Every structure is written in C-alpha cells, then in structure tokens.
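Thread: "does anyone have the structure for this chain?"

Original post by V.I.:
We have the sequence but no experimental structure in hand. Need at least a predicted one for the grant figures.
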Amino acid sequence: MTKGMTTRVTTRLLVIVLMAAAGLLAQESGEQAKGEENTNLWKWANFAILAVGAGYLIGKNAPGMFRARTAEIQKGIAEAQQVKRDAEQRAADVDAKLNRLGADIEAFRTQAKTDMEYEGERIRRETLSQIVRIHQQAQLEIESAGKTAQRELREFAASLALDLAAQRIRSRMTPASEAALVTAFVSDLAREASKN
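Reply from O.Q.:
Generated one for you, tokens below.
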C-alpha cells in the first residue's frame, strides 16, 4: 500500500466512525431514559474515536517506519551479501594459492637446481682458470729460478776460474818475475804520462 492509499482508507474509517457516533448521539438524545446503557454507548463511542485516531496515527506513521526498517534490513542483507562475496573471493584466492603451491615449490626446486648447476659450472671454470694461472706462474718462477741458478753458477765458475788462475800465477811467480812486472808497469805508466 502506498502512503496516499493508507491515508484515504484511514480518513474513510474516521468518517464512518464519526457518522456512527453522530447517529448514536441523536439516538441517545431521543432516548434519555436509558441512563446506564447510554453511558456504555458513550464509552463505545469514545473507544471507537480513540481507535480511529490511533489507527489514523499508526496508518500515517507506520508505513514510513516500516519502509525505513525495510530499507535497513535490505541494506544489511546487501552488506552481508557483499561480505559473503568478499569472503568467497578470499577463500577462492587461498584455494588458488594452495593449488599453485605445489607448482611453485616444484618451480623453486627446478630453479634452485639450475642455479646450483650454473654456480657449480662457474666455480669449475674459475677453478680451472686459477689452476692455469698458477701453473703459468709456477712455470715463470721455475724459469726465473733456473736463470738465477745459471747466472750464480756462471759467477761461481768465474770466481773459481779466477781463483785457480791466481793460484797458478802465484805458483809461477818468482821474485825476479815480480820485479820485471813492476818495472814494466812503471815504464808503461811513464809512457802514458808522457803522451798526455
């Protein structure tokens, strides 16, 4: 029922009750003899007026109150449905994540295995490179040590040869040959000095 219809129905009821009360009043004035019944009649008329007034007020205010309450209930239902949809969506997301979890773990394992193989290969290449570098460095150090040893050996051999030559010269040297050498040396110096 719309508000306009409710108001019309309430107005008609009020008019009917008032007409009945007016009829009762007219009848009462014609029959003054019945005092006690007349009081009961007034009580019923008052009750009818009160009931019609209460009905009118309820009819006027109740639809708005019921509409507001209905709107609140519908709003609550809509919110509950939204909460339900959100919860179902979250549950679906969790289910999807759980379903993907096995695949994600397997992908992680595959990636970890690939990474380990790559890292192992990188370490192997790096180790091989280090071995080659150490081998080359060792070769250079061996060559350098060999050259140093040869040079020291030559120096040692030269020193021995000089010592041996000095010993031979000393063994062959006599005081007369020494004096002849000193004299030759001094005369060489004098000749050199005269040239200058």
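V.I.: this helps a lot. The radius of gyration is 68 Å.
O.Q.: and The CA atoms of residues 48 and 54 lie 10 Å apart.
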